[in-house]
Amino acid sequence: MAIATNNDTQQMAATKPRKKKLPTEVSILAVLIGIALLFEIVGWIVRGDSFLMNPQRLLIMILQMSIIGIIAIGVTQVIITGGIDLSSGSVLALTAMVTASLAQSSDYVRAVYPALTDLPWIIPLAVGLLVGALAGVINGSLIAFAMIPPFIATLGMMVSARGLARAYTDGQPVSMLTQEFTWIGSGANPVIIFLGVAVIFHIALKYTRYGKYTYAIGANPQAARVSGINVRRHLVMVYAIAGLLAGLAGVVASARAGTGQAGMGLMYELDAIAAAVIGGTSLAGGVGRVTGTVIGALILGVMLSGFTFLGVDAYYQDIVKGAIIVAAVIVDQYRQRKRKLT
Amino acid sequence: MAATIDSASSPQASTQYLLEVVNARKTFPGVVALDNVQLRIRPGTVHALMGENGAGKSTLMKIIAGVYIPDEGEVRLHGKPLQLNGPLDALEAGIAMIHQELNLMPFMTIAENIWIRREPLNGLGFVDHAALASKTQALFDRLGIDLDPEMEVRQLTIAGRQMVEIAKAVSYESDLLIMDEPTSALTDREVEHLFRIINDLRAQGKGIIYITHKMDEVFEVADDISVFRDGQFIREAPASELDANEIIRLMVGREVTQMFPKETVPIGDVVLSVKQLGLEGVFEDVSFDVHAGEILGIAGLVGSGRTNVAETLFGVTPATSGTIAIDGEETVIRSPHQAMLRGLALLTEDRKETGLFLSLSVLENMEIAVLRDGYTHGSFVSQHQLDQQCEHMKQVLHVKTPDLEELIGNLSGGNQQKVLIGRWLMTKPRILILDEPTRGIDVGAKAEIHRLISKLAGEGVAVIMISSELPEVLGMSDRIMVMHQGRVTGFLDRSDANQISVMQLASAPSAASA
Lengths: 342, 514
Hints:
The complex is a heterodimer of chains A (342) and B (514).
Chain A: H1 7-15, H2 24-47, H3 55-80, H4 88-101, H5 122-144, H6 150-168, H7 179-182, H8 189-207, H9 209-219, H10 221-226, H11 231-257, H12 268-278, H13 290-310, H14 314-341
Chain B: E1 19-28, E2 31-41, E3 46-50, H1 57-64, E4 72-77, E5 80-82, H2 87-93, E6 95-98, H3 110-114, H4 129-143, H5 158-171, E7 176-180, H6 188-203, E8 207-211, H7 215-221, E9 224-229, E10 232-238, H8 244-252, E11 270-279, E12 283-291, E13 295-300, H9 306-313, E14 321-326, E15 329-331, H10 336-341, E16 344-347, H11 351-354, H12 362-367, E17 376-377, E18 380-381, H13 383-396, H14 413-425, E19 431-435, H15 443-458, E20 462-466, H16 470-476, E21 479-484, E22 487-493, H17 499-507
Parallel strand pairs in B: 3-8, 3-9, 6-7, 7-8, 13-20, 13-21, 16-19, 19-20
Antiparallel strand pairs in B: 1-2, 1-4, 4-5, 9-10, 11-12, 11-14, 14-15, 17-18, 21-22
């Protein structure tokens, strides 16, 4: 048998067009468009106004979703490995606090570190990313080496990081940040950062060894190990990246708000998980895409914005949101069952 | 397919059968699991189903037990068509199945497991535990089972659980019992016990479908035999009219001698040399050499440590003692990655557990082991190159798939196995370890894989092949190492090896010399 590459088959492979099946994203996109159109129609009926023909509203919607979207891209990768990350909202708050404390301007009397004011923007940003990544490394190490279930390890981090965020300044907000730093969160910058992160990790998951290993570990960790993958090390890396992205979200959130507050990002982890799951990421692992998560985040955003536009009470918004998350998981279960039957 | 039925086409006489399956067809995406299959069970008989793995026996049983709904065809019980929409329907209709994989709840007692869904209740609507225990005891007395009904199932041995499963199936007082390899975990004495139970049930007029791979059991218990191959019904006949060779011929569809196309190739230098290798508590003092171009077979019963030796060589469970030398140089292997760097490859025993990525595509399954070297630019993979190489492998190995993007779960077992072999061939191994390379795949794919192994040896690859199928080990190996309870009991050359000499070493604790 010729193991070496053979020219004939190479040409055959090159000339044979690959049959493309409709990716799952198409159906999720259809749901997004459907929901948007529904709000449009109901909007005209109820309020005599267009939902979509309002750039201001759409920009606000995307801005709101950007921060959750950044987290969700990290959470997506964790879920692809078959894990879960409940800590992202709290890690966001912790990084927002630490970052803000290093981004305060000198004309403010209540600086956390009076000697460290007016620092160049890169320092709070870098420290924020580092804090986030560190939290992720702790999550990953607990899961990969101490063999603690991801749910429990990140639940612990969720509680502890939130406590640490509060303890950091005794619950006081950290305000008066330098203009240089708040620029990060100004205008459409959060959207640009979100989309940039999405592109980077879309490529990383699809075209790099990192991505391929991530899917393999989620699909079958034992087979991944026997295939020569250092599963533990890779898991730590994936959780570290999720932490890093939560950290980035914390930086953006504090820059946008111009303050760091320990209550930031409350329940964001659940919205992030919801965005991933609505976007077709399977909680069983091995399945999921960044594009799906981006659309999932937009679905959440359109819902929020649409209900506000229609004047529907926030309580009812949550009821519908909950139902959509459950529906997405039902679809996922159905897909898995189809897979298992074969 | 030439199917011979002794009393063909007499629909009026159909009520003489307890159960009939007529023209059943079942497909899964990409696979026809059953095609035009029939089965007829007479009351008061044991009917053995014979066929290789993948012949369709399990699918057929799942249809009868209501797990699968057939695409075409009909199941008739007592001559009446049966509409089953789930396993509960089958139970209600009087069909009970003892599954190959045990379905008991470990933290509940034996009695609770047996009567689940049918617990006797007291006046207040609570479970009457005294009645539960006494009913179970009565059942056990009848079947001669000596177990405490109050014991939790997790405390039982596998054999004990098997007996509980059997008792549970009997407790439904079903007319038809399906037993799928019931003896695989039983000792000889327990098997005898099971056969006594089967004889009792037969005397009561019940029908029993008995699936097994053990030829001697078939002739001991079966009245009738139906043979299946590749999803097709081949033949039905009374057991007295068939012998083992005939059954094998029917199952395999060709003369068995054609099955192992081992070529004689020149044997080269020692590539792998293992000395006193041990894994604490599992195996010890395993020493052997493998030469380039040689196929070393490892035989032994399940639990003899065969698979553990393979996993230790490959760094899955690093050795606790002994040395491994490759090309005469001593080396340490503590992880699969290190093993791969040293030219080893391991096709694992359990395709589903440790081989396949079921949610991923054929391509993603095949390329995974070579992403570290050759096919990458920095962190990025050279997808174009990978596509070409995987396409090439697909053609060389005759993998039947619409395209490389297909989910691997939609392929048949044989094709899945070929993809996994392709995964390892892409690493260009010098030492290839194959653990049960043809388990659960159809005969055609089996022969192809055997030819491939032979060819690889011809190209100078050192092959270690573990197999539970003696004919495979005997047919393919240049040399056979036999293990028993974690120790090597002997080596046999191709010329000295036969079923008897291997089995003697595999079951005899006293070490024989090579």
